[in-house]
Amino acid sequence: MVKGEVTLRNRRQGSPAWLTDAAIYQIYPRSFQDSDGDGIGDLEGVRQRLPYVRSLGFDGIWLSPIYPSPLADGGYDISDHSAVDPVLGTLESFDALLAEARANKLKVLLDLVPSHTSIEHAWFRDHPEWYVWADGGPPNNWLSAFGGPAWSKDEPSGRWYLHSFYREQPDLNWRHPEVQEAVGQVMAFWLARGVDGFRVDAVDRLAKDPSLRDDHPATGPWLLPLPPEYATLSHVHSRDADDVDELVGVLRRRAGDAALIGEVYRPTEELERFVNHFDLVFAFEFMFASWHPEAIARVVEPAVRLGQIAWVLSNHDFSRLASRLGEDNLRLAATLLLTLPGAAFVFQGDELGLRDGPGVHPPFDRAGRDGSRHPMQWDATPTGGFSSARPWLPLVDPEHRNVETAEEDPSSLLTLYRSLLSLRRCFGTGFEVLLVDSTVLAYRRGQHVVTLNFGDEPRQAVGEGAVVLNTDPGQHFRIAPARGAAVLYAESSRSSCLR
Ligand code: NOJ
Description:
By secondary structure, the protein is an alpha/beta fold. It is 22% helix and 17% strand. It has one domain: TIM Barrel (Alpha-Beta Barrel), CATH 3.20.20.80. The protein has helices spanning 43-56, 91-103, 122-126, 177-193, 244-255, 284-287, 293-306, 321-325, 330-339, 403-408, 413-423, and strands spanning 6-7, 23-27, 60-63, 107-112, 133-134, 151-154, 159-162, 197-200, 216-217, 233-234, 259-262, 280-282, 309-312, 343-347, 430-436, 440-445, 448-453, 459-460, 466-470, 479-480, 484-489. It is globular. Residues 73-74, 76, 113, 165, 201-202, 263, 316-317 line the site of 1-deoxynojirimycin (NOJ).
C-alpha cells in the first residue's frame, strides 16, 4: 500500500499543464452524430455536439481516426494522413470543429497511427523501402494480432511484408529516416491547424528485432487480454525492441510540447521507459483489473507512482463497461475512474451506460469489435437522434438509454458523471490510500475522502466531514451504498466545487 500522500509528477519538462488531470472524452466519429443523413457520423455532427461534451465537464476530446481509409480496421488503416475521410467531412469541417472546440474551451487530440498504414496508402506503392520486407517466405513465426501470420505476400513484387495487425495494414520501418520525416510532417500538418496533441496508436509496434528472430512460445497467460491465437506466443522480438524509446523520442521532437498520449499496451511495470517522451500512457492493467478492491489497489498504486497515467476503463477496442462489469457496477466504476489522481479518459456513451450491441453480419470489424462501436443514443426515437437515415450500425436501445432522458433525470448515471467531473476539479494531485479490505477501497484526495464499496452491503464511509457526493442519489448519510461510493469533504460546509 502507498504509505503517506503521493503527489503526481510529470518528469517531462514542458508537458502541458492542462493535461495532468484532464478529463478527456473519446469520440468514435462514425458513431457520434450524423449531420448529413447518410447514416454515418461525421465531423459536422461532432461539432454540433461539442457543447454537450463541455456541459458534462470534460476538458477535451480524443477523436479516433478521421482520415481517408478503406476501413479494414475501422479507420486505423489510413490511406492519407493529411486529409479528412470524405464520408466524415473536409479539412474545412475539421477547422470548424476545432473552432467550436476552442469556443467551448475543449482541447482536441487526434489519433496518430505511426506504426503502419493502409496497404492502399500511396507510400506503399511509391516508397516500398519504407516498409518491412522479407524474401522467399515469412522469415519468422510472428503472428498478426488479429489472427494468422504477420507476413503476407505482395503479389506484384513476390516479396513478403510485415503486418502486426490486418494484412491490409503493412508495418512501416521506423528505422528508416524518411519514415520518421514523413510522419513528422504529418504531425506538423495537424499541429499547424491547431490541434493540441495526439493519442499515439500501437506504440510497442514501432520497433521490432532488427534480425527478425522468432518469438518464443508463451509460458502462461499475459497480464493483459490478447486474442487466443496471438496469445500462444510471447512477443519478445516482434514488439518493443531496445531502441523503441529512441523512436518515441523522434515523435516527441516532432511534437514539440504538444500533448502525446501513448497507447502502450503493456503492464504498468514496463511503462517507465516510455514516460520520458510521452506526457501520459494509458493504464491498461487498471482497465482489466479484477473488479475487487484489493486487485484494483494493486494496479492503482504502481500507476500512481509512475505518475503520468491516463486512467481508462473502456474504449472502441473492448467490450463496453456496462457489458463487462454489469450495470450494477457502473456508478462505482465512474467514481473510481474520475476520482483517481491524474488524467481520465471516458469513451462516448459510457455516461449513458451503453451496452455492447450485436454488430452486423458480415461484421465491419473481422476481429469482432463492432459491438462497442454502435452509435450514440441522443433521444428515444428508433435512430436515437443519431441520424435521419438507417445508421451504419444499428442503435442498441435508445428507448431505454438516451441523453435527452438522462439529462432530465437527477438520479441518472449521466448526472453522476457531471457531478464527478465537477468534483474532480477540487482535488489537486495528491493521493493517499486510507483503507483496502475485501469490499472497500478508500483514498484521500486533498480535503476529500473517497470510499468505494465493491460489496453487496452498505458500508460506513471512511473519514470525517460532509457528504458531497453519493452514488445513491439523495443519500446524505456517511454511507457508501452497496456497489457504490461516497465522497466526504473534511470541512464542515459543503465543498464549494460542487454545483
Ligand atoms: C489500437 C487501436 O485502438 C485499434 O483499434 C487498432 O485496431 C490497432 N491499434 C491497430 O491500429
